[in-house]
User: Which sequence fits this backbone?
């Protein structure tokens, strides 16, 4: 049993089932810490939402100024430190009674003694999975590991949200490590990350101590090597890619695709856009104007160097339990091309999973607001539809999403609202904060205030994975850090070194 | 209403103008030597020398709240001492006695006192606690100076009528005072009692008694207190001459109850530590032969402890003791509620406090 650290005091509004205040009589408490108090209803668990220091001697500005006007500080005249009190404002979270957590519906009495919440109670209260949970960090100010149950964390999708540079990718790397290190008997899922900046490519590289080597469990797919089989594209998909495709044009295109698929079945083999274009040109049924428009669009699509006769790489080969597939899109600049790839992978994965041809998976989407934007025309949000579909239906099939974004306000509300667990790192933009508050009812104003002041590596988790919003410290990663994590100074030095080497080589050559 | 206010303001202005005129006359000689036997220090106003604090100084104060009930009266009293240790004029350590957070002592009185005696009873209880604590602190901490909040002897209002049931208790309190004086003398501790809002008129009486011949204008000083006169007369860092607490110990209703040794030693003076505050009355014990030296020394210490704020002059050690001792009215309600919980209707409040609307 922990030592008592304070006593509940009586204020105008507290103690109540939603607020208690206590004066700290021993040691210190921090905002974000958990405390507990025994009372007839059971053991109350509460979160310290604010800590206020008071001192009678410093309450009146005029008196402080007057007493210090002669040059000596107030503490040299009065025992001011004797009057400093620490009052902690707390939000009751729940009550342990008869081995169960219940809502707080009755307050403890003023005078009740308070202690730091015990590790045992916290584990039970937050429903941590001690046997096979994903250990992503520790509860701030408590010696308690945050071990999240796989199903509760991922089945109904996850969102990782924060401003740039607050540790989203770091947290996601920690999550990957936990999923890759997971024992077979605990149930392993496949991880696929669609990585626009190549932040996770370090997982595929062999690592030396002190880092853990995950290269044997990671596969890397470079964006430039991805090919999508044209024969596998439906006209519906093409309509999503090609802006302004009219119903008549769709019909014509459907007919051409039908003929080419027929030939393919008869042994002519798969076809590409070149074959489609030739078929359109030869067709007598398609009007001249339609031909010209279709040929123009197909020419543009072909120019992306993304489509071919067969799809590569093969998803069924890539997606294996306990492995990570990094789809590195950092060499692709065209956002449409990236969206087409995301759409293709997401759709393919979902379809394959429905047929149980791939294991249950976690599809991680970095910069999710680029691929699933809130306010964008259909033509510029090619991948939004399939992401929404997985968000809505994925849980039934073991297809989980992890949406990562630095602009929650620009992320599709439908998809975000389906993410039953949210990991929120530092967010400062007021629009993003408002959006978050609207999408997560468990977030109150005090928690919102705390989000703005989170340090790098500190996070808030809300939703299904925990019983109550929890601030925690993300654990240190075991894998090799991303090359993106080098300092600006180091990047500048590397550039200048490379440039001077180039210059000297040129000079020698001349 | 307006005419009433006008007349009040008018009378205040007239009285102030009159006083200023009289005091400007006295000011002419206030800082010069005068040859009056009864004024031992031979000056009306004297400068207070600055001193550096390097000793242990105690301050005693008490707080009390009371509640009158149907069959008894309850008083909560909390006396506290703050003991400051100074070095080079800076506070180095603060001790408290008794411990910081003890609950105030409840005193239940069922003497069936008359209405007027209720407040006397409360006041005597408070005095007894305070004086006994001062004695204990002097024994335990050996301070060089011990500051008391209020007068150094009970007030006239604290003395019950001769046939009152409270008379023995009053005499007991007088004995407590005498015991404190003995302890202070034995431990070489100077007692300094500070009166925040004095209504004393002894200084004015002395002026009128001995200077009326030279300054007939003094006859106009009828309706004012010493502190009012001295507020004009004293400048920051000055004090009045020290004077005996009463013109005749035998004739004084309270001093007469003390042993003559102590009664004759009670003196007072006024000093002005801060420019914008009124003078502070201090009372102390001194034999006639030491009066000038002691008055100067005690004034200097009081000044050093009280002159940090331009508009509030009071010794810091007493400010701290007051903060420690202060009681809130709610605290007695806690006690009464607890008793009421157990006694129910037998524990009745006053009818006037039980009105339904």
Assistant:
């Amino acid at each position: 049993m922990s030592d008592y650290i304070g006593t509940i005091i009586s204020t105008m509004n507290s103690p109540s089932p939603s607020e208690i205040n206590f004066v700290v009589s021993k040691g210190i408490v921090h905002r974000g810490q958990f405390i507990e108090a025994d009372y007839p209803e059971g053991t109350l668990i509460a979160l310290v939402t604010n800590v206020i220091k008071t001192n009678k001697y410093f309450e009146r500005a005029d008196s402080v100024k007057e007493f210090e006007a002669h040059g000596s500080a107030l503490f040299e005249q009065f025992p001011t430190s004797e009057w400093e009190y620490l009052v902690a404002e707390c939000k009751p979270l729940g009550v342990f009674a008869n081995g169960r957590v219940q809502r707080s519906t009755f307050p403890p009495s003023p005078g009740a003694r308070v202690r730091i919440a015990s590790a045992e109670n916290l584990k039970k209260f937050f429903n941590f999975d001690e046997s096979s949970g994903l250990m992503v960090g520790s509860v701030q100010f408590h010696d308690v590991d945050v071990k999240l149950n796989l199903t509760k964390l991922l089945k109904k999708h996850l969102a990782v949200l924060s401003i740039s540079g607050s540790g989203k990718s770091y947290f996601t790397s920690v999550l990957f490590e936990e999923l890759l290190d997971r024992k077979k008997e605990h149930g392993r899922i496949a991880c696929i990350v669609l990585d626009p900046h190549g932040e996770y490519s370090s997982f595929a590289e062999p690592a030396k101590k002190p880092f853990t080597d995950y290269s044997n469990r990671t596969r890397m797919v470079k964006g430039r090597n991805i090919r999508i089989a044209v024969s596998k594209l439906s006209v519906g998909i093409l309509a999503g890619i090609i802006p302004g495709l009219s119903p008549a044009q769709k019909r014509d295109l459907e007919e051409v695709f039908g003929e080419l698929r027929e030939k393919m079945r008869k042994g002519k083999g798969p076809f590409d856009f070149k074959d489609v274009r030739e078929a359109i040109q030869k067709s007598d049924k398609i009007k001249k104007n339609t031909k010209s428009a279709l040929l123009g669009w197909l020419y543009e699509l072909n120019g992306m160097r993304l489509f071919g006769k067969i799809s590569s790489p093969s998803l069924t080969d890539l997606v294996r339990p306990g492995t990570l597939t990094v789809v590195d899109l950092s060499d692709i600049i065209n956002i449409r091309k990236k969206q087409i790839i995301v759409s293709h992978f997401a759709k393919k994965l979902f379809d394959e999973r429905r047929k149980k041809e791939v294991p249950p998976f976690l599809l991680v989407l970095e910069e999710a607001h680029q691929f699933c934007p809130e306010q964008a025309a259909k033509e510029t949000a090619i991948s939004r539809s399939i992401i929404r579909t997985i968000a809505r239906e994925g849980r039934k099939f073991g297809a989980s999403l992890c949406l990562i974004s630095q602009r929650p306000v620009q992320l599709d509300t439908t998809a975000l609202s389906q993410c039953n667990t949210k990991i929120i790192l530092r967010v400062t933009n007021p629009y993003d904060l408002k959006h978050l508050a609207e999408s997560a009812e468990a977030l109150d104003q005090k928690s919102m205030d705390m989000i703005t002041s989170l340090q790098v590596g500190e996070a808030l988790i809300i939703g299904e994975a925990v019983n109550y919003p929890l601030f925690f410290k993300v654990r240190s990663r075991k894998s090799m850090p991303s090359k993106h994590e080098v300092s600006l100074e180091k990047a500048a030095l590397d550039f200048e070194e490379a440039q001077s080497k180039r210059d000297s080589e040129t000079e020698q050559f001349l | 209403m307006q005419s009433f206010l006008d007349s009040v303001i008018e009378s205040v202005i007239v009285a102030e103008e009159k006083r200023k005129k009289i005091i400007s006359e006295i000011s002419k000689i206030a800082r010069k030597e005068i040859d009056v036997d009864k004024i031992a220090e031979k000056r009306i106003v004297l400068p207070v020398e600055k001193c550096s604090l390097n000793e242990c100084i105690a301050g005693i104060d008490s707080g009390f709240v009371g509640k009158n009930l149907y069959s008894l009266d309850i008083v909560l009293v909390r006396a506290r001492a703050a003991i400051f240790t100074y070095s080079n004029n800076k506070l180095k350590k603060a001790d408290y006695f008794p411990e910081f957070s003890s609950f105030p002592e409840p005193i239940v009185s069922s003497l069936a006192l008359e209405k007027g005696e209720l407040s006397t009873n409360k006041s005597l209880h408070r005095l007894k606690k305070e004086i006994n604590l001062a004695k204990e602190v002097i024994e335990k901490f050996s301070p060089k100076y011990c500051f008391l909040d209020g007068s150094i002897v009970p007030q006239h209002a604290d003395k019950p009528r001769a046939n009152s049931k409270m008379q023995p208790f009053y005499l007991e309190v007088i004995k407590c005072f005498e015991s404190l004086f003995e302890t202070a003398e034995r431990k070489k501790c100077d007692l300094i009692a500070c009166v925040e809002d004095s209504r004393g008129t002894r200084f004015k009486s002395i002026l009128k008694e001995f200077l009326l011949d030279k300054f007939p204008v003094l006859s106009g000083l009828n309706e004012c207190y010493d502190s009012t006169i001295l507020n004009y007369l004293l400048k920051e860092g000055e004090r009045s001459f020290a004077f005996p607490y009463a013109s005749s110990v035998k004739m004084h209703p309270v001093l007469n109850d003390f042993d003559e040794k102590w009664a004759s030693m009670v003196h007072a003076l006024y000093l002005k530590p801060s420019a914008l505050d009124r003078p502070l009355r201090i009372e102390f014990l001194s034999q006639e032969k030491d009066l000038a030296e002691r008055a100067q020394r005690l004034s200097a210490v009081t000044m050093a402890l009280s002159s940090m704020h331009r508009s509030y002059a009071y010794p810091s050690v007493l400010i701290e003791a007051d903060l420690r001792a202060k009681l809130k009215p709610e605290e007695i309600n806690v006690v009464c509620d607890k008793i009421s919980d157990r006694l129910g209707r037998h524990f009745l409040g006053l009818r006037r406090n039980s009105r339904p609307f």
Observations:
- The radius of gyration of chain A is 29 Å.
- The mean pLDDT of chain A is 88.
- The longest strand of chain A covers residues 42-55.
